[in-house]
Amino acid sequence: MKLLHLDSSILPLDNSVSRTISSAIVEHFRKAKPDVTLARRDLVSHPLPHLTLTNLPTDHPHSAPGNEAERDESQAVLNEFMASDIVVIGAPMYNFTIPTQLKAWIDRILVPGRTFQYGANGVTGLAKDKRIIIALSRGSFYGQETPYATAEHTETYLRTVLGFIGITSPEIIVAEGIGHGPEQRAAALEGAHQSIAALSV
């Protein structure tokens, strides 16, 4: 089993809820399956540049020459994703959506002919075999019953983009309200750890 671990929080581990949760998810799998092969990509310490035609993965039909090093890195990101069985993504909500570092990674894995294709019946996702687990943190409360539900563009975006490439049931562990004081932060983390313990391996 190959597991890819991604983080996109600009905070260090000891102050980041999404990093704490994503690390706990990875540890959950490593304890259950010691032979798991782990790939690690920190999208903040090693950020990908914003997308251009010259740094698209070489497999992308619109990829253009001009920046071979960045093209090769983009292709490596795509290949790494395609080789993974499980992908764990640390995704904090920043300004109502995902961090730009995570968006840059997503831009590398949405590639026609590799992760999706168009046909007579519309779009077909080609990454159906992937298991995606998202560690999602939010400073306030954005559930359907809250006044801010329509401002939630992190979970909804990730579900949309993953569904586009065939991953229609990502597992999402949410810790929210973490900006509402230390007690709520601790409660959110405790709930997340309980959800991690219940993950099948």
Automatic annotation (TrEMBL):
Keyword Ribonucleoprotein among record annotations: no
Note describing how the cofactor binds: Binds 1 FMN per subunit.
Keywords: Flavoprotein, FMN, NAD, Oxidoreductase
Pfam families: Flavodoxin_2
Binding positions (FMN): 9, 16-18, 93-96
Assigned protein family: Belongs to the azoreductase type 1 family.
Role description: Quinone reductase that provides resistance to thiol-specific stress caused by electrophilic quinones.
Record's protein name: FMN dependent NADH:quinone oxidoreductase
Species this protein is from: Kozakia baliensis
